[in-house]
Amino acid sequence: MLLRRLFFLNANKNKYVSVGFYPSRSYLPLVEFGVIRSCRSKAINLTDEQVYTTAQCLPAVADAMCKEGKDVETPIMKCERGNVRLGTPKRRRGLTRLYVGSEYICLTSLDLHYIAGIFNIVHQQMRDYVLTLSQLLS
C-alpha cells in the first residue's frame, strides 16, 4: 500500500474504509471497505466509478435506515448500478450490504451513518488520487 488514508468505522477498529494506491494493481487508486476478524478478514475494493456510484446511493439508503422501526412498513431501499449494489435486506433489520460483484460487506446502521457523514471526504481523496496518478507513474 502506498499513500493510504484510513478511516475506522467503529471504536473497536475492526471495520474500516481506506483510500490508497495499490502497487499490486498497477498503482491504481482504490477505496477499500474491510472487516478485520480473528477467524477471517474480508475486504472489497472499489474503483473510482464504483466510488461515485456509492456516493450517489449512500444518502438514500441512510435515510431508509433512519426510517426503520418508525413505521409499520419498513422501507426496503436498493440502489444498483453496474456491479455495485447497496441495499437494506428484508430479513436482517438494521444491516445494510454493500455488494461489489458477488462479494459484500455488512454494515450496521451506525456504520452506514458514519460512512455517509465522511464519504464526501473519501470521495474527494479518491478524486485527488486519480488526478495525481499520472505523476506517480512517471
Q: State the shape.
A: globular
Strand content: 25-35%
Rounded mean pLDDT score? 80
The CATH architecture classification is Roll
Low-pLDDT stretches: none
Distance between the termini: 18 Å
Kindly give the count of domains.
1
Characterize the largest beta sheet: strand count, sense, and whether it forms a barrel: 4 strands, antiparallel
CATH class: Mainly Beta
Helix content: 25-40%
Based on helices, strands and strand pairing, what is the structural class? alpha+beta
The radius of gyration over CA amounts to 15 Å
Topology:
Blueprint: E1 2-8, E2 15-22, E3 28-35, E4 42-46, H1 48-67, E5 78-81, E6 84-87, E7 95-100, E8 103-108, H2 109-137
Antiparallel strand pairs: 1-2, 2-3, 3-4, 5-6, 6-7, 7-8
Folded structure, characterized:
Strands 1-2-3-4 form a four-stranded antiparallel beta sheet. A four-stranded antiparallel beta sheet has the order 5-6-7-8. The chain has a single domain, classed as Transcriptional Co-activator pc4, Chain A, CATH 2.30.31. The radius of gyration is 15 Å and the shape is globular. With about 140 residues, the protein is α+β, with helices and mostly antiparallel strands. The chain is built from two helices and eight strands, in the order ββββαββββα. Helix 1 packs antiparallel against helix 2. Strand 5 and strand 6 form a beta hairpin.
